[in-house]
């Protein structure tokens, strides 16, 4: 089985954004040492507690400080941008870091309505045009446009992936012969049915091409289940704070999370969010990952871990790698 890392550059309440971004770089270096397959960074805009709004910039920084781990945008929110520029940026990265660059494509806005308007006057129209945008992007990545090239042209093109949580994204990936990433950690949909739709609709662009599935999960691992539950409390309470428009101070400490009062409605949301996470000791997390791999017919599991203390996050990835890889 392959394991990978998805990083949002979360900012803890005792951190600056600069510290969070440098922690992301340290996590990528650890992932490389532990034989994780790839390290992807998300794109979010004006969301309190998340430091990365431009993953392509961070990948240049991280690429210069790593050697082998694959690096990717997870995802470029394509309706905000011209496909040509997205191709140029990733060709630049692929030229600097040969055969290491992935290009994850998504359609979400990545922020509030106000931020969406600040980024793009035609976001909704572009969401409807997503199939055309994907086709245009692929034409630049594969040099199929006779009039213009997205230079510099790397020796090995970036590998495109479609990210999503819906049947629509699965079918779009399948139709275009793209590899597919299903975001289990943020979906209430029937994931296995969606990934099956992808497999059924897959049409290879090249004869030797086969469908590939990554499932992205949220997981926190510690030496004991009790410790993992305690560490996870910070992330879960922070999610509830963000739901209320709070959370500007970043991920709360474990003690602050324990002291945070919850209404009955929030307690229900807490339980629901917790069900979307894998929390436990190494043996339990391994068993859940194996089950997820089988259920989704996935060749790879991508893990997102959010903790208050950087050492708890690094330790979680280390324990999982030692148990699974």
Structure, explained:
There is one protein chain. By secondary structure, the protein is of the alpha/beta class. The chain has one domain (2-222, 279-324): Luciferase-like domain (TIM Barrel, Alpha-Beta Barrel). Helix content is 47%, strand content 16%. It is built from 13 helices and nine strands. The chain has an eight-stranded parallel barrel, surrounded by eight helices. Strand 2, helix 2 (55-63) and strand 3 form a beta-alpha-beta unit. The longest helix has 19 residues, at 225-243. This is LLM class flavin-dependent oxidoreductase. Residues 1-295 form the Luciferase-like domain. Pfam families: Bac_luciferase. To bacterial alkanal monooxygenase alpha and beta chains. Residues 1-17 have a biased composition (Polar residues).
Question: Can I get a quick summary?
Answer:
The protein has helices spanning 17-33, 55-63, 83-96, 113-119, 123-128, 130-141, 167-175, 191-201, 225-243, 254-259, 264-275, 282-296, 310-324; strands at residues 2-7, 38-41, 70-77, 101-106, 159-164, 179-183, 213-221, 277-280, 300-304. By secondary structure, the chain is α/β, with parallel strands linked by helices. It has one domain: Luciferase-like domain (TIM Barrel), CATH 3.20.20.
């Amino acid at each position: 089985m392959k394991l990978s890392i998805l990083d949002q550059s979360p900012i803890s309440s005792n951190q600056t954004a600069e510290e969070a971004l440098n922690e992301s770089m340290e996590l990528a270096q650890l992932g490389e040492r532990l034989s994780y397959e790839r390290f992807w960074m998300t794109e979010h805009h004006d969301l309190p507690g998340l430091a990365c709004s431009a993953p392509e910039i961070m990948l240049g920084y991280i690429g210069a400080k790593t050697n082998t781990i694959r690096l990717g945008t997870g995802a470029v929110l394509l309706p905000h941008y011209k496909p040509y520029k997205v191709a140029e940026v990733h060709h630049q990265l692929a030229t600097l870091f040969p055969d290491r660059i992935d290009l994850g494509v998504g359609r979400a806005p990545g922020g509030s309505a106000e931020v969406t308007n600040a980024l793009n006057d035609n976001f909704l129209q572009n969401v409807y045009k997503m199939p055309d945008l994907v086709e245009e992007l692929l034409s630049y990545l594969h040099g199929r446009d006779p009039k213009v090239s997205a230079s510099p042209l790397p020796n090995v093109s970036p590998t495109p992936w479609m990210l999503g949580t819906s049947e629509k994204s699965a079918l779009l990936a399948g139709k275009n012969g793209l590899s597919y990433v299903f975001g289990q950690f943020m979906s209430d949909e029937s994931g296995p049915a969606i990934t099956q739709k992808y497999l059924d609709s897959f049409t290879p662009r090249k004869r030797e091409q086969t469908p590939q599935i990554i499932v992205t999960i949220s997981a926190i691992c510690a030496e004991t289940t009790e410790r993992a539950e305690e560490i996870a409390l910070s992330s879960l309470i922070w999610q509830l704070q963000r739901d209320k428009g709070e959370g500007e101070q970043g991920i709360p400490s474990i003690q602050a999370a324990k002291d945070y009062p919850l209404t009955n409605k929030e307690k229900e949301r807490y339980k629901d969010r917790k069900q979307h996470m894998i929390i436990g000791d190494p043996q339990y997390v391994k068993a859940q990952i194996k089950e997820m791999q089988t259920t989704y017919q996935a060749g790879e599991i991508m893990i997102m871990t959010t903790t208050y203390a950087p050492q708890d996050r690094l330790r979680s990835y280390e324990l999982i790698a030692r148990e699974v890889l």
